[in-house]
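Mods, move this if it's the wrong board.
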Amino acid sequence: MASSSTTTHFSQPHHHHPGALYSPPIDALHRPNAVLLHYCRLLQCSRTFLGFRPSNCVISDSIIEESKEVVKVRAYPFHEIEPRWQKFWDDNRTFRTPDYDEIDTSKPKFYVLDMFPYPSGAGLHVGHPLGYTATDILARFKRMQGYNVLHPMGWDAFGLPAEQYAIETGTHPKITTIRNIDRFRTQLKSLGFSFDWDREISTTEPDYYKWTQWIFLQLLKKGLAYQAEVPVNWCPALGTVLANEEVVDGVSERGGHPVIRKPMRQWMLKITAYADRLLEDLDDLDWPESIKEMQRNWIGKSEGAEVEFCVLSRDGQDTDKKITVYTTRPDTIFGVTYLVLAPEHPLLSSVVSESQQNIVEEYKEVASRKSDLERTELQKDKSGVFSGCYARNPVNGEAIPIWVADYVLGSYGTGAIMAVPAHDTRDHEFALKYDIPIHWVVTSAERSDDFEKPYAGEGDVINSSSSTSGLNINGLHSKEAAAKVIEWVEKTGNGNRKVNYKLRDWLFARQRYWGEPIPVVFSDDNGETVPIPEAELPLTLPELDDFTPTGTGDPPLSKAVSWVKTVDPSSGKPARRETNTMPQWAGSCWYYLRFMDPKNSTQLVDKKKEMYWGPVDVYVGGAEHAVLHLLYSRFWHKVLYDIGIVSTKEPFKCVINQGIILGEVQYMACKDQNGNFVSADSVDALGEHKQERIPEEEVTKSGNSFVLKDNPSIRLIARAHKMSKSRGNVINPDDVVSEYGADSLRLYEMFMGPLRDSKTWNTSGIEGVYRFLGRSWRLIVGSPLSDGTYANQTVAVDEKPSLEQLKSLHRCIEKVTDEVEATRFNTGISAMMEFVNIAYKWEKLPKSIVEPFVLLLSPYAPHMAEELWFRLGHSTTLAYEPFPKANPAYLKDTTITLPVQINGKTRGTIQVEVTCNEDDAFKLASLDEKLSKYLDGKTVKKRVYVPGKILNVILERESTKVVSRYQIVGFINI
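Not the wrong board. Structure tokens:
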């Protein structure tokens, strides 16, 4: 290391090829003080880029200390480019989709839509732009291909989170909602998304929810909206009903408050009336098969029978009470050994014996605190209590016990099941736990002889006949036996054939303030429901200062006394308004239609506009909305189709679920009870050990594992989690944009991997695409000037491109086009990176090559592309420039690799034209450095040439004189 007195002076670094940063000579690092000299030159370059330049640089202790400071050198001036072009797009409304009467409807349309966001106070994190970037690339690509593109954005802004925040802070939800929307909009604009902001909508605006209310009235007219008393998830602390998905482990997902099941009179939508159509029309959709299968399972169509079991009196006599069960396996009816009623079954109280009444009531209370999910899928240990009563099996006359168990839901089927423990896993577990008999009635060659395990498959029926009932299904296959049982129960009046659905009617009321008012009143005279006339819509929310739960179960809107008191619009008599509001799902069911015609005050959507723009061509969003949102939207769309509002049976032609971006990998070390580190692979039950987070700089990789740097024997747990504030792993896109630019963030999110896969965020990974953009910039604009700025023009020249350049460009065009159309955005970026690497080797950069490349780049990195387009001499935006098309003439390889054999043995290869003849191929082989050593001075006996396949050169073998062993001996003696 040089001493503090050593001084070196040098001039500005020489800029080599346009776009090259300073790099030391190859031998520089072998010279004394080379590393420090190189660092100081980089420091001088850094100072130059930052706007000041020393006349010389002195290597001293002070300079060495200064060099330790982090000096950020921008790879290109994104901080100037991006705000300028965002302002240009805003000022010129560049991405405004013209109204229907302004566009050329003979052109194809492309409607690309994001599942619009809920604008929370936290703003965006880097996971949100993943889908938005994908749709933006598609929108920009299609505009350049000549499509009329509809690419809108809006806000799903009603709902519980805003109301809870209002309660906690005392701020009206309208104020916080507007503030949150403003923040989201600013963040989205900072990322350069080409949304048509003229079509922006919010579900909270009366002009919008007027039409949500109008749709409700149409449902009411068709008998698809009704009121019923149903068991619901009631959260006393939140003062509202919650959907099953909003309850986790018996508490509310938001706030963690206890939730109970209780009956309440609620508005319901009869989605079950459309179950078959919702199921059948899935087949024609271009959706992920996994999503379609989830919807099929949610609808849960099954065919079977309803069978009645007569309840017995204390002395074993039949009563007039009958328990109806639904079964998909009538063939197993002889194997029924008990019945199960759901805790909320309406007949339960009348069939419980006096001795069991308290036990059953206690059990019902416990069950009311569980969600449907806990009671079914998540519950490992089955629980239940005996009712004290029995019922009669109609096919064999046996008396079987009636149990109460929460693994049966009151909302599915009839709320009662016939339990066949020999042939159902849940029933088998329950029977073993409570010592209930198990009767085998189905057998199969596929099953083992182990009668300790249930067999749920079909097979041959056994032990299934009764002389009393006259029913005998022994020896029949399951399907044939089931049909015979159904025929018997229908003939004897003990049941009937039945098609059933897992799908339940949609619970459509919420005890909240921040939601769409339901447009009905109830007459004070008779309680009759009266719809508000359509001409009086929207029914707007009243202003309330107190949105807290009432504590009585009445919704917060009941506090708006003067609003609640009204008159019956049909009679003029006193009436009261509905104080429940619609769920958050309501506004998001149909918003895609409003984007087609957002300012229409007389219609939900103009018929001509809907027929042109519908359906949505590509709909991108998270898989968490795979069932409910998509199913509800499809239901409403079909109702609107039936009443002539829309022209298509389905709302979304193609659905794409983007993957989740997980937070950065976190490293955890296990510690024993004494606080000592223990290796994760030696810990049997990690729950018995404490875990401590380890900073990344203290971690190193060893093989496929991560270990402590200071103690490699300690293997760590490396895991990435979904981004959340509670884990502290949320990455704010504003920070990324500030450091690397919006185009880098867009490119990185697309480059991380396939769109549909989940990915792990790695901030250091963004530097790769950031460098690529910097290299692309300098390739075209050139190196920075002495003051750190760049020339206003480019280094592109008006010269004819070479064949090699044309081939490279058109291969890139073909690859990028194919990958965008297939939404394989990561490999499209790779193709452009490869092109830039090749282009750096060229002496000159023809403008006719540069311009198509800039257009290829523009959907991905629109800010940089616009700036480059401008510097290439264009005065208008490139947003509507034709997307480059690959010329097939430049995609064909005119040269091939030809193997060359010498005497039948492959010795190398040569590059030849496809049309190359034998003489030219031999000449090229003779000139090849590797092959020439085999040919020089040799006599060619024969050449075998197969065009495009092989060249085999047969050489004359050299003559060898045969010497006898006697001559050899004599020679040695000499």
